[in-house]
Prior knowledge:
This protein has helices at 9-17, 20-35; strands spanning 4-7, 44-46, 53-57, 60-67, 72-80. It has one domain: YaeB-like fold, CATH 3.30.2310.20. The chain is globular, with a radius of gyration of 12 Å. The chain is an alpha+beta fold. Helices cover 29% and strands 34% of the residues. The protein contains 2 helices and 5 strands; from the N terminus they run βααββββ.
Amino acid sequence: MAYALVIKQQARKKIQSLSRVDRVRVTEQLTLLGLNPDDPELDIKKLVGEPYYRLRIGNWRVIFDRHDQVKIIAIEKIKARGDVYK
């Protein structure tokens, strides 16, 4: 069963500011994430010492939280690789 994606305002603004190519790639990956967050083709890792996960999309990182009981994925932030962990 698919998960509902909840995208925070900060992440939504970032998606809109991306180049068209990056925006398409990010939205396609987010769609796949919503369909199956356990898909082995997605580059997902649990962040150490944090309740969040990260999805790698090229040079972009999507930080999200999973709520398996209610089937919701909350997209917290989308940032460039070098900035996201600061």
